[in-house]
Specification:
With 952 residues, the chain is α/β, with parallel strands linked by helices. The chain is built from 29 helices and 32 strands. Strand 23, helix 15 and strand 24 form a beta-alpha-beta unit.
């Protein structure tokens, strides 16, 4: 229960509310998860763990707000919300940040140095690679852990300031020992089932980071290149088949890979090359005979229509090599340079001599030299033809990827197994994507897979792959006989821990063992976030309560990585989906309508925005965009949100002042609660509060079971038509907002609540102000327990019930402003109060109120005020008399609110006239019927005539 002062501030402001309420929420465990609840009572969220190797940007605020709005709504609906927060702190981004921040680099061959202190500690410009101090892997990992710990504190501070209703006692790190144990256990079980396996195969390789890269981590970048037209001489069988000695011309952007050429390929239907299929040509410079083959992926319209297959220039080469069963002729090493030894078939003669000129060169230098030699040999036609073409990069890399052959670990993902692919497609169809069209991205990704998921990385800061290998008598690893640990010993690090059944002195000696040096891809851990946060390994009882989880919120750009990989792991390990719903946020666009991203350098950091506009205002901007919809970064929208939050405070001040609740609350919160009960006739949070003296619900029951006359109070609860119409309209808003939230459309829920709230403030409050004060001057202290007129009592009850309902409607989006107001007169927290229900509002409104009354009365008040605005006099100026011409359908509604209209408009005499009837000359003697020729007035628009203002 909140125990803050009930005193309402003289000047309400949203400034400073974040620190105040975050402290209270933390102290009182407002968002703490209750493990005693049953599965049916729990709503669990698989929160995205942000990468802590950089800084949060406004896009994070955007998407995480969407999640928090859902969490707060579900909590108010009575669900116990399991809402942890994690930090994705392993992998390449962290390593790169540590290298630059501390001026070090990892050298696994170096011994551990106790008490090592790095040469730099931030502040300095990024340290060049050549100047980075080499340190042991253990020292490097310690620095990674040190830096991520500091980053996590900054991230948490920002998330708290934003108002995320996370259970901060349930944070996790993807590199923590418990997370490592989960990742290793899942790997070992997959290994036992045959789903995890190792293979020597062509691998996408980043030469800068010197690590393998998975298909999901690729991105195409447009880069300049050039086509080189090169001649291949025909071998004897090709000359005989074609009856020609003419060369075969190919066009390639990778002439440096001529020594890796294993075939030429054309489309099987290309008549130009059909005579060559099955015959041979000789590679220029090297003179190696290679076959001419046919394959459906060859493009007759690209270049000369025939291409060389190299091992390997791109992923299509890999496909051709695998499907056509071609030999391997690898030339590139892991450092991105040409190997020192020539590949098979180039070991002797001129081929070896030419290759020797390339050995040790980078790809760029080798290409330059090969082109020079081609020109010298007169086998290149003309100058290279410049082009721009997409080139594959590691999403975090700076150089184009190469393809090298290496031993790697994989997890089956349907890329090579049609049966598994079909099962994973079925999982995607069963998952509720929000919005639905995002499911197509999942489907397209699964159908486009070309191989299994490569999970091994040749890096240092990550989850070690938990295997060792026996060494034969020559000291070579026996790769196909891995040694695995027992699950109860996890986590393990094979680079430092001893293999089961061996001793430390047997490491890396013949007949002994060696540890696996690779680590897992960061997604191999992040794909297990439901298992990590749910306690799959350590707390099976909790896991049974939260898994499968209800919601996975995330960005659209990682459907192919995080979402898909999590589905794969849950399918393989548990045979089911990891969650019921996947909420996909859109992107934030800069003023040029380009996606904001750190790589583009157009991001905006959020803390300044939160401090300038207030967290509620920034949350309002985020919640104004629907799931899956891109939104413009718009500080103007944040200003609107700040205005709304401030209006909530000020409207509440008026309502509580006019009802007298503020007077009582200034004495104590308990008195404010008692006054609330009295003013509303015992209706608290939509239920009848019974006889509890302090206004708390005691054995309460739905107010719809009663009517106003049944309450033991001296006045009817809500008796005036305008008041009843206001609550009936509010009931419709509650129905609409609830339906929107249930459909995960937080934007629609906000739109409905906000629109009606402004009607409440601009129209209803102004109309009932005089009636609510019951003869007292506005702003005068009101005794809520003193006798008042039934009309005033009706207005006061309506103001209070409406205010409390609006606070609960806005609470998911504006948590700070709504909690502040709630504390002025209500016990506990609005964020644990029940979500509003429409039925109690309709029961209090009674009968069938005219749904048009509030809008009609508001339009009438605007017409009266227009008289004074056009006359340039104060709105406090009285109108002696006026005719109000009203559309025929609105006459009953305006008449029902006539007394409030006259009081609000300061009108002494008001005649409500049917606008259609007013066109009759017999009514006012004016209009086109009198021959004046004036245009006929629009009878659907409210207007005034014959207004007489009082002398000022």
């Amino acid at each position: 229960m909140a125990t803050m002062t009930s005193r309402i501030p003289q000047k309400a402001t949203v400034d400073g509310l974040e620190d105040r309420w975050n402290s209270v929420w933390e102290d009182q465990g407002t968002y703490r998860f209750d493990e005693t609840k049953d599965r049916e009572q729990i709503y669990s969220i698989d929160t995205p763990p942000p990468t802590v190797s950089g800084s949060l940007h406004v896009g994070h605020v955007f998407s995480y707000t969407h999640t928090d709005v859902v969490a707060r709504y579900q909590r108010m609906c009575g669900r116990e919300v399991f809402y942890p927060m994690g930090w994705d702190d392993n992998g390449l981004p962290t390593e790169r940040r540590v290298q630059n921040y501390f001026g070090v680099r990892c050298d696994p061959t170096l011994p551990y140095e106790e008490g090592f202190e790095p040469p730099h500690s931030g502040g300095a410009a990024s340290v060049k690679a050549a100047d980075q101090v080499p340190i042991s892997r253990r020292n490097f990992v310690e620095l990674c852990e040190r830096l991520t710990e500091e980053d996590e504190k900054q991230f948490e501070a920002l998330w708290r300031h934003l108002g995320l209703s996370v259970d901060w006692s349930r944070t996790y790190q993807t590199i923590s020992p418990s997370s490592q144990a989960v990742a290793q256990q899942a790997f070992l079980r997959g290994l036992a089932r045959g789903e995890c396996y190792q293979a020597e195969a062509p691998t996408l390789w980043d030469v800068t980071f010197r690590t393998a890269v998975a298909q999901a981590e690729l991105e195409d970048r447009e880069r300049p290149g050039a086509y080189h037209r090169i001649a291949f001489e025909k071998a004897a069988d090709a000359e005989e088949a074609t009856g020609s000695y003419e060369s075969v011309w190919i066009e390639t952007t990778r002439p440096e890979l001529l020594p890796a050429c294993v075939a030429l390929v054309a489309h099987p239907d290309d008549e130009r090359y059909q005579p060559l299929f099955g015959k041979h040509v000789r590679t220029p410079l090297f003179g190696v005979e290679v076959p001419v083959v046919a394959h459906r992926l060859a493009s007759p319209d690209k270049g000369s229509g025939i291409a060389m297959i190299c091992t390997f220039g791109d992923v299509t080469d890999v496909t051709w090599w695998r499907e056509l069963d071609l030999p391997m002729r690898s030339v590139l090493g892991r450092d991105g340079r040409f190997r020192s030894e020539p590949p098979a078939g180039l070991e002797t003669g001129d081929a070896a001599s030419v290759y020797a000129e390339l050995a040790g060169l980078t790809v760029f230098s080798a290409q330059k030299r090969v082109v020079e030699m081609l020109v010298e040999a007169d086998v290149m036609d003309g100058e290279p033809r410049s082009i721009s073409h997409p080139v594959k990069f590691f999403e975090k890399g700076d150089k184009p990827l190469e393809i090298v052959t290496s031993r790697q670990w994989y997890i089956a993902n349907g890329g090579r197994d049609a049966g598994l692919r079909g099962e994973l497609l079925a999982r995607g169809e069963a998952l509720d994507f929000l919005p639905a069209h995002m499911g197509k991205r999942y489907e397209n990704w699964v159908n486009g897979l070309t191989g299994d998921w490569l999970i091994s990385r040749q890096r240092f800061f990550g989850v070690p792959i938990p295997v060792w290998y026996p060494l034969d008598s020559s000291g070579d690893p026996v790769w196909d006989s891995p040694i695995v640990p027992a699950e109860d010993t996890l986590p393990v690090d094979p680079s430092t821990d001893v293999a089961p059944g061996f001793s430390a002195d047997q490491r890396d000696v013949p007949g002994g063992f060696t540890g696996e040096k690779d680590i897992m891809d960061t997604w191999a851990t992040s794909s297990l976030t439901p298992q990590i946060v749910g306690g799959w390994r350590e707390d099976p009882a909790l896991f049974a309560k939260v898994f499968p989880m209800d919601l996975r919120p995330q960005g659209q750009d990682i459907i192919r990585t995080w979402l898909f990989s999590t589905v794969v792991r849950a399918h393989l390990e548990h045979g089911e989906l990891p969650w019921k719903h996947a909420a996909i946020s859109g992107w934030i666009l800069d003023p040029d309508r380009k996606k904001m991203s750190k790589s583009k350098g157009n991001v905006v950091t959020p803390m300044g925005l939160l401090e300038t506009h207030g967290s509620d205002a920034v949350r309002y901007w985020a919640a104004s965009a629907r799931l899956g919809t891109d939104a413009a970064f718009d500080e103007g929208q944040m200003k609107i949100g700040r205005r709304l939050a401030n209006k909530v405070l000020n409207a509440a001040k008026f309502a509580l002042g006019a009802t007298g609740i503020a007077t009582a609350a200034d004495s104590s919160l308990e008195e404010g609660m008692r006054a609330t009960k009295h003013v509303t006739g015992g209706i608290i949070n939509g239920v009848f509060a019974g006889a509890a003296a302090n206004g708390a619900v005691s054995g309460g029951h739905d107010v719809s079971e009663h009517n106003a006359a049944a309450f033991d109070i001296p006045h009817a609860l809500v008796s005036q038509p305008l008041d009843r119409a206001l609550l009936a309209g509010l009931a419709d808003v509650v129905d609409g907002a609830t339906a929107a939230f249930e459909a995960y459309d937080h934007t629609r829920a906000l739109e409905l609540a906000e629109s009606y709230f402004w009607t409440f403030c601009d129209d209803y409050v102004e109309l009932v102000k005089t009636r609510a004060y019951d003869g007292a001057a506005p702003g005068e202290a009101i005794d809520p327990f003193a006798p008042c007129s039934p009309e005033a009592a009706s207005a006061r009850a309506t103001l209070t019930i409406a205010l409390e309902t609006f606070l609960r409607l806005f609470a998911p989006v504006l948590p700070f402003a709504t909690e502040e107001v709630w504390s002025w007169f209500r016990p506990g927290t609005v964020h644990r109060a029940p979500w509003p229900s429409a039925a109690p509002l309709r029961a209090v409104a009674g009968g069938t109120p005219d749904p048009t009354l509030v809008d009609a009365a508001g339009a009438a008040l605007a017409a009266l005020r227009k008289i004074k605005s056009e006359a340039k006099v104060s709105q406090r100026t009285e109108i002696v008399s006026v005719d109000l011409l009203v559309p025929e359908a609105s006459v009953p509604a305006v008449n029902a609110a006539k007394a409030d209209l006259m009081a609000a408009g300061r009108v002494r005499s008001l005649q409500v006239v049917d606008a259609v009837a007013a066109l009759d000359p017999g009514v006012d003697g004016e209009g086109p019927e009198d021959g004046s020729g004036a245009p006929v007035a629009d009878t659907t628009v409210m207007r005034t005539e014959n207004a007489l203002l009082a002398e000022s």
